[in-house]
Amino acid sequence: MGSKVSFAVLSTRLLYLLGAIHWGKTGVFTFENQVEYARKYSAEIEYSQDNLDALFTMLM
Known about the structure:
It is a single chain. The chain is an all-alpha fold. The protein has one domain (about 1-60). Helices cover about 85% and strands about 0% of the residues.
């Protein structure tokens, strides 16, 4: 169970940092930007078993 919690925390932190970087570069970070980052993250991590396994391995 701990690895799932760690995954949720890591995912949230990564999305937060992506938003902060976007805002730092452009001065703007909209809800639409946030949704797009979440969509891309989900496509790359959550829907790729290889990427998901690698992330869980890193968290252990």
